[in-house]
Amino acid sequence: MKLWPVLAALCTSIVPDVAAAQDPFPGFKSNAEIKAEEDARDGSEAATPTEPVARVEMSAMDVVPGQALDMRVTVLVPTYMPSPPVFPTFDQPNLMISLPEGGSGPVTERVGASNWSGVSRRYKVTPMVAGNFGIPSLEITVTWADPETNAPVETTLSLAAQSFTATVPSGSESLDPFIAAEALSLTQTVEGSAEALEPGDTLTRTITAEITGSSAILLPALAPTGALPGLAAYPDSSTVQDRENRGKTVGTRSERTVYLAESGAQSSLPVIKLRWFNTNTGQIETTSVEAIPYNVDGPILPRVADADRATLIYMALTVLLGTLAAIGLIRHRARKRDASLPPPTEASLFRDLMHTVKARDLHTLYGALDRWAAMTQGADPRRHTDVQLALTNIGAAAYGPQDSEPGAAWAALARALSAARHSGTLTRAAQPLPALNPTGPA
Q1: Which residues of the chain have pLDDT under 50?
Q2: pLDDT value at residue 19
Q3: Residue 9 has what pLDDT?
Q4: Alpha-carbon span 275 to 178, nearest angstrom
Q5: What is the average pLDDT score of the chain?
């Protein structure tokens, strides 16, 4: 028996199995395999979109009030954008919406079998209260280059509406106000000697709160309200500011109050505490600043409560307004009375003058004489010889020796005034005015 044919047959049956078990060319593809992959790729490219696309993504669907979430809007085009897209601006009640620094930038993504370019923008959305919130569908205007002509094409894209919920964590319902943050601290500075104040001295207290992971808008007023023994408080306007630090919101609220020492007292500026919810630990924590003892040397005066002070101010204003109204009414009646009286005449003024002479009223005599003289025509009656002599005798009787008899001087003045009034020397003919344009030789 020949062994060669048998060995040849065994080798022929064994070699194919070994070749199948060990591929000497891994990754080698036949022409048929290559053709099948190309056909599959052509089919996927046919399904690739040819128009710009836009999408919106929310970083969370359930947050706590005061905790910000990210809403990212991405726009992609198959070519390029000759001008930036017009992103929407929107506002919602009880939502604080902002654009964080560095939140926008270019992006490149694989769409189908091609690389598309685009722009992404991040909105920081912070619910201020608990509740369900919805962001409606928004529109974006995109200008992109046509793939065939390279001409600019303007397209309006719509974003899907979004919704999320802000929920107060269980066990923290007692927080009022509810403050959620990653970290919260309180610090204070004091200017002035609190232990050695005298009336008129000032003491300044500045309180600053810093919150991380939330906005300072959520922080309440820090400075205490209400009266303090021996001190009057004069608070400044608070300063509230937010900033970005490594992608996180850091807010500060600062309040400065100047206290004026008014009277003797020994007390303390109160402790200030804030209770808040730590979003990292899920626990309620408390941060505070200590009280500041102070001492005012001086007499202890009764303090007027704010309500009593307001009542006193109201009463003082009422009395002042009433006084002003009474003065105005008196002046109005005086003007009305004066307006109703007939205008004075020479006869009425002479009659008043003679009553003054009869009453021997030296204090009002010269005033009455001046008013009557101003209404007379002709020479000034005060320059009449008998009138001047009578006035001189009246003055001598009033300021001279006590044994002088003034009666005769007053009677002589009455006769002199009557004579001066009826004297022909008081009437003078009206002198014609000279011609304004003389015609004679110069």
Answers
A1: 1-26, 43-46, 424-433, 442
A2: 43
A3: 47
A4: 8
A5: 82
